[in-house]
What does this fold into?
Amino acid sequence: MDSSGLDSSGLGVRRAVGFVAPALVLIGVFLVFPALWTLYIGITNYQLTGPAAANPRVVGLDNVVNAVRDPLFTNSVWLTALFVLGSAVIGQNVLGFGLAWLLRTVRPVLRRTVEGLVLLSWILPGTVVAYLWFAVLSRDTGTLGMLLGSPRTAWLVQYPMTSLIIFNVWRGTAFSMLLYTSALAAVPPSQLETARLAGASGWQTVRDVVFPHIRGHVLTNTLLISLWTANDFTPFLLTAGGPNHRSEVLPVLIYRQALESGQLGYASAMSMLLLVGNLVIALVYLRLLRRRA
Amino acid sequence: MAGIGGADTTGKKVGWGLLNTVVVIYALIPVLWIVSLSFKSSKTLADGNFIPREWSLENYQNIFSTSEFTRALVNSIGIAIIATAIAVVFGTMAAYAIARLDFPGKNLLVGVSLLIAMFPQVSLVSPLFEIERSLGLFDTWPGLILPYITFALPLAIYTLSAFFREIPWELEKAAKMDGATPGQAFRRVIAPLAAPGVFTTAILVFIFCWNDFLFAISLTSTEQSRTVPVALSFFTGSSQFEDPAGSIAAAAVVITIPIILFVLFFQRRIVAGLTSGAVKG
It folds into this structure.
């Protein structure tokens, strides 16, 4: 009888391994192996062309040291931090929660419409939305310029980072909104009612009644959107890092170093550093989550 | 605010104002603006009018008359469908084993697949480029299908496991007690219960493959396997001095149609799929 608890579907354990194997093989060949390769070429001077392409030399941690000293890299780290903080941690989180909170009580039709529209901006192809924003923000014919009555502003050139942050808030809010909508559904209505009768303001209710219930969701959401934003490549489509590196977030810098300059070794070392950054964010999150328990 | 602070009318007004603004911004920018651009003739393209002064199908005729676009459309559809089918089959098998069976390293597997899902895509571009060049996969269909499957798998496994955990597996046992074979129990009882989760995952995987730009631009070099999102960025207009904006808008509308249909028909499913892992996990 006990074995049926273990294996109630009638599959043998060996067959179970067979079920997992195809997925594992693919992940091994096309994810883990390239990842290890990235780690390896990160310590060489490997290049796409030239003498170092044929005979890459192991240079140890030189690439990492060079990156840390490279003003382009440090600039890029700051821009990425700004991008993540401004558009994900603050922008998407706050707007997503605000929308979820407002949509709680409105009619289902309106709620589904807003949800659908926000969702659409999230899952439309990156090239399409980038092109759209290009059209909206462009200098001579841009929609925004016309609406604001200042048709000569080249938004993407004059305010590249601000434009990227606003763009990413617009694009990414859907996930936060949907997650908070389902989180808010779990807050007991009786407690909200009590707060209302006690005369609590909207903000007090959110802080003292709602937040303790959804703390885990806030953390999960912040982690996911931070990582997605840090790894996001869409800025390349909007500004390609320019003008003059002023919007060159890390994924864009890595891509340009690897495939435009051909510095594969150097680019790999920088992606390693990006990965370390991701891990640090994830660890901080896990610690915060554990403190709750 | 609305609903809670019953007497708080200014808060309510601000809330409604915000909501209206959001609806207008989200609706105006994504769909309507490109649709409008795509129907403008080349003369009125840059006039900035929101509603085209003269409607024309010129742009659509242009893109469908070039192999640059039609070939890319065929590539996009083929690659996304094949990759989705394989990823869902492999993902379902793995998630099924994870949900039903205890085997050593099971939790580790879920943890690792989550970790891998967080990998910056861009950091794997150069090794994949090298691997594919040496295997002869560069600029071929399998050269895109294989990385898509791989990148979709961790997410698929994670989402599907969350769905499979919810299935009342005792029903299977009950069916067997009533005399069903394991095969029948699976087909008649479990498969219908699992279908919505599998379907939702398939939609999400398809959207990921359909939208990808980074792999598609780094692992292809010719029309042979270039997908629409990349082909868009190579558009130059039908003559050298023509503004390609109209063609790009028309092509953008064409690749947006399936996504809009998905959202229209499966909105609830997509929402469930997106939040299931994060909320329940």
